[in-house]
Design brief:
heterodimer, A: mainly alpha, two-stranded antiparallel ribbon, B: 8 helices, 5 strands
């Protein structure tokens, strides 16, 4: 088993030692020439399918089987610049975002080239922010691919269409409704829907986000009738402790994002929540 | 307030969900369709559950999505049914799907925040398409310079993907270092 693996590995290693066509900082680049020999018309297609500089960077990293975490700035910058140059050559509309990324890469590279001073504790790896952005983007890139796989109407699910009987006569609704009726009905619906909300507390990130959206929707809808609503109205006791906690977290998040504000008219008085002015 | 038997109730709800253009929620059924009848919430739910049982082993099924109940063809038949529809279902660009994913997973979110993560400008046509499809809506404006709109996804978005709540979406996960992305 061991021997077999060694034998398998050995020729590969030899090939890698024989074939490198460029050396950058002691690292052999084997695949790069492939990029350079792509005919311009094909290249335009390849370049157009990137969703931006982060996507292009991810492609370069993945293609070289690098780990995002130890993002090798030098080779990646070289390759990135090759692409940017090629974009110029094929007169592709070179989006400003690509040039901004080139500047970021150059900046990181120059900072890495500087002689290492005694590292202050606060000083971070200059690559850290870029790595964070790449990881954040990759998660979403993957999520989009997953979203595309979910069965959807038109492509995967077919809805039923049934006609009404011949003798069907539409009923006209009575429109003479008092505003107080409306408010009462609205309150009723609010109560009812609240009782039917679903909770998946175990997925913390998603449910807080969802709750934030729900609180905002609630406030937006309520703001049609009154500028603020009682703090306690945002909660539904039936949800139990965890539901209340998620709502509370959502409210805190929204206050932090200064999307809503909490008001208390007098000491020990009822708390009221309202949308920030700009939200209305 | 009129009385209604279990059998009549089932028939009425069945017909209502069939002829309704949009999914019907239990609340909606009670307040509109059954406004003149003496029925409790539990009876409606029981009737719906009983209908769901009736439709087992049939070509269509009664399912619950975000805005309520609807009938749809069972998923095993989708491939064969596709032969009926000459027009191909729209395919959405990666840019659109990424934007939609960001709004779905990171809501409430502004356009600037979407651009920050994607590293490119979000085209207006994408936001327009998403709004026109009623998949996203504006719930307010952020209290920062420029007062950007804050977007969230709608029930229609969940309906379209046959989901009943946001947490039914596939869970976000970081990729392992050498996992391949197929695009």
């Amino acid at each position: 088993m061991n021997e077999e693996m060694l034998n398998k590995d050995q020729p590969k290693e030899m090939v890698q030692q024989v074939l490198p066509l460029a050396m950058i900082r002691g690292e052999a680049l084997i695949e790069q020439p492939k990029d350079l020999f792509i005919p311009p018309y094909a290249l335009a297609i390849i370049l157009e399918q990137f969703e931006g500089p982060l996507d292009l960077l991810l492609y370069l990293i993945r293609k070289q089987k690098f780990d995002i975490i130890d993002l090798p700035i030098a080779p990646i910058t070289e390759q990135y610049m090759v692409y940017v140059e090629l974009m110029k050559n094929v007169k592709l509309e070179l989006a400003a975002e690509y040039l901004v990324m080139a500047a970021i890469l150059a900046e990181i590279k120059s900072r890495l080239l500087l002689p290492k001073q005694v590292l202050e504790e606060s000083e971070q790896d200059p690559r850290a922010e870029l790595i964070r952005r790449l990881q954040e983007y990759e998660v979403i890139k993957y999520a989009a691919i997953e979203l595309d796989k979910i069965p959807r109407i038109e492509r995967d699910s077919h809805l039923t269409e049934v006609a009404l009987a011949n003798n069907f006569i539409p009923r006209t609704a009575i429109t003479d409704i008092d505003i107080t009726d409306l408010m009462r009905a609205f309150n009723e619906v609010m109560k009812r829907t609240a009782a039917f909300e679903h909770h998946h507390i175990q997925r913390e990130v998603l449910s807080t986000r969802e709750r934030m959206a729900m609180v905002l929707t609630k406030l937006t809808e309520a703001s049609k009738y009154q500028p603020f609503i009682e703090f306690s109205r945002l909660f539904n006791a039936n949800e139990g402790k965890s539901g209340v906690v998620v709502t509370f977290l959502a409210i805190l998040e929204l206050i932090k994002a200064s999307l809503i504000e909490c008001i208390q008219a007098n000491v020990y008085g009822q708390l009221h929540v309202k949308l920030k002015e700009a939200c209305q | 307030m009129r009385d209604i038997t279990e059998q009549q109730l089932k028939r009425l709800i069945e017909a209502a969900i069939f002829v309704s253009e949009k999914p019907l929620s239990q609340e909606n059924i009670k307040q509109t369709l059954l406004a003149d009848y003496k029925v409790t919430k539990i009876r409606i739910i029981t009737a719906i559950e009983s209908l769901q049982c009736d439709y087992q082993n049939r070509g269509i099924q009664l399912i619950k999505v975000a805005s309520g109940y609807r009938f749809q063809a069972v998923s095993e038949l989708s491939e064969d049914l596709a032969a009926l529809f000459k027009e191909r279902a729209p395919r959405y660009s990666r840019a659109l799907l990424e934007t939609l994913s960001l709004i779905a997973y990171k809501q409430p979110i502004t356009r600037g925040e979407i651009e920050q993560i994607r590293g490119v400008a979000v085209s207006s046509s994408i936001m327009k398409t998403l709004s026109e499809k009623d998949w996203i809506k504006i719930v307010g404006h952020k209290e920062v310079p420029g007062k950007p709109a804050i977007y969230i996804t709608t029930n229609e978005f969940l309906d379209y993907f046959s989901l009943s709540v946001l947490s039914d979406l596939p869970q976000l996960r970081p990729l392992t270092s050498n996992e391949k992305l197929t695009t």
